[in-house]
Amino acid sequence: MFARPSAPLVAGEPLAARRSLLTLLLVLSALLPPALPVSAAAEVDLWLELPQLSPASPEVGQQVTISLTVHSDGSAPIENLTLRWGVGVLTTTAQLTELGLTGTEPVTLTLPWDSGSVESGTVVLVFWVSFPPQGSAANPLNLSDPTPADAQASVAVTVRPLPTFDPSELTVGPLVPATTHPAMESILDLDLRLANGGDLDSGQLPLSCGVDANDTPRSELVVEVAAHVDLHQPVPLPLADLPAGDHLLWCRIAGRAVAILVSVLAPRGIATVTELVAPSTIVASEKLSIQGTVHNTGEGNITSSVAEVLVDGAAIGSQPLTNVRPGSSRTVLVAWTAPLVNTPTILTLTVRTPDSSLTKAVLVNPRPTAQPRIEITYFAIPKVDKARIGENITLNYAYVNRGSKDAEGYYLRFFDEFPGRLPLILPQGLIKVDIPRTEIATILHFSYEVPAGSEFGTHTLAIEFAETIDGPAIARSETPLEVILPQEPKLSITQMRVSNLPARTQAQLSYQGQDVLFAGDRIYVQATIQNTGTAEATNLIIQLLEDGEVVESRTVDRLSPGDAHTIELSFIPNAGTHRVGIAVEGFGASKFEVKEFVPFVDPQYLTVALWTAIALMTLGIVRLGGEPRIPTWRQLEALEVLAARARAAGTPSPKAEALLAKARERMESGGR
């Protein structure tokens, strides 16, 4: 599972010591169990996932939930499994009856554990699983049963002591904003000064803030406490479900609480004018209807308000707004007669509420004796409201001359308008047209390509008629166009992990806090590729590179925007330092790390190699045949690594660990 064979570990010892070593090895081998346990049934292959704890680092006396998953890679189902587990050594025996496993149906067990059974510090929980004939429902395995387990796993747990603190000062600042309504989240300024009155130098202290005396806390924090703490931090308090009125906001820490009052406003309705409908061009003395739409965008009802219609600031009508629920609309309709004018006059129509207003300019022409009257009856972009730079769109428009005279030599103008810049004349530019009087509209269309350099956002495309090339518009119509970013994929490698073990083991060999990677072994590289762009990426070629050379590649058909894909590739490196990484061809996404690969001994020879190394180191402790030789640190490191692989393979030896500890002690004391 782990590696290929390599040469056994050899240390330079005298010939007499080697003869004594051979004798010692023969005696030890007879007393020790085999390095790799053999399953009782050829079709059964049990293994355990790394146990998961919640919480991962409990306090003394805290209840912990252990999640342990049992797998069988064999083909036959298993029943009456026996689980043994405990702290350091076996302290618990549990019988699992009628538990069937197959190679595709792992079983997850949930075990309770009270951390009050141990003192604070780091402890190791060990789990063993066995099946008949080693144990049965009638005669389960017990603490004294020497039979080895078929699978085992262990996990180190740090149990934290219970902190004791004496808060000397706790103050709460004002709420921001001081008055709020239920849809908002407020910030409470917390000024906390604590003096550690317990026996511990540091720890964690829970801090809770809430609303009203009996309410469930709305904000829970953990304060890291040293000998003295002086901190100032904001505490967010979600107030979305508070009713209107005065409320008591409080914070509590180590038995002490302080509070302030805050007023929550009742939700109110907001009358927002969303639409104003009226002709763009009218004739003097004509009657017309001005229509506005008022929408309640607030969170409460509009109980008493009013909407007004104005022409050049003068009110021409109003309508009360009552019982308008949130999200509902009301229509305001006012009749108006255009004034008499001798020349074309632009007037401003307005629909206004106490909360909002909307305006529109209209052109009032004199009553014609024998004059043309041009109207734009239609101007729109069919089936399109968004476009990208360089994209072609089609604009349709229609106009008619309902006057009493033909319009000769009038100008038709097209514009692309955007806030903050001058109107851009469309490629059609200024067109000189003759428009005969008729009641039938002329329908036309033209193609417009969104030019390079256009601003992203809402543009206004406009069409106008004028009597002269730069004269005022006598008819105008508008339609919006949203210019959006181009869609393209964008890939990045968010995570990469290099390991001697495949991802499913959820384990990694390490020594002195550093991962240990073995040359000549199959090295697994797991990477996560994420598409952070706005379009789907297809035909991804994911490459594993060693020192710039592709050693393995894999193809992923597609990756949608926002999705991530985790892949595992592998290779066999030579000893030494190599630059290892993952790259996605053609997308500029890559991640590299420099790793050190060291030689190792194959697990099938691990027992002999391990005890050989232990014996060689023992020669530096026990005086055999003359002055002892102290093993080098390099030999000790190799022995540490081999022991780590033995533990990862599920075959740790207590005797070997004891000799290792003794060897380390001798090494640190200089061999005396």
Structure in a nutshell:
This protein has 672 residues and is mainly β. 9% of the residues lie in helices and 49% in strands.
Please write out the topology:
Elements: H1 15-31, E1 46-48, E2 52-54, E3 63-72, E4 82-87, E5 92-95, E6 107-114, E7 121-130, E8 151-159, E9 166-176, E10 179-180, E11 185-195, E12 203-211, E13 219-225, E14 228-238, E15 245-253, E16 256-264, E17 271-277, E18 281-283, E19 287-296, E20 305-311, E21 314-321, E22 329-337, E23 345-352, E24 357-365, E25 374-380, E26 386-388, E27 392-401, E28 407-417, E29 424-435, E30 442-449, E31 457-466, E32 473-484, E33 491-499, E34 510-511, E35 514-515, E36 517-518, E37 523-531, E38 537-546, E39 549-559, E40 564-571, E41 576-584, E42 589-598, H2 606-618, H3 633-648, H4 654-668
Helix pairs in contact: 1-2, 2-3, 2-4, 3-4
Instruction: Count helical runs.
Output: 4
Strand order of the largest sheet: 10-16-15-12-13
Low-confidence stretches: 1-42, 134-144, 601-610, 616-634
Q: Please count the beta strands (DSSP E, at least 2 residues each).
A: 42
Mean pLDDT: 76
Q: What proportion strand?
A: over 45%
Largest sheet: 5 strands, mixed
Radius of gyration: 41 Å
Computed structural class: mainly beta
Can you give keywords for this protein?
five-stranded mixed beta sheet, 4 helices
Report what the structure shows.
The chain is mainly beta. A hairpin with a 2-residue loop joins strand 15 and strand 16 (256-264). The longest helix is centred in the first third of the chain and has 17 residues, at 15-31. It is elongated.
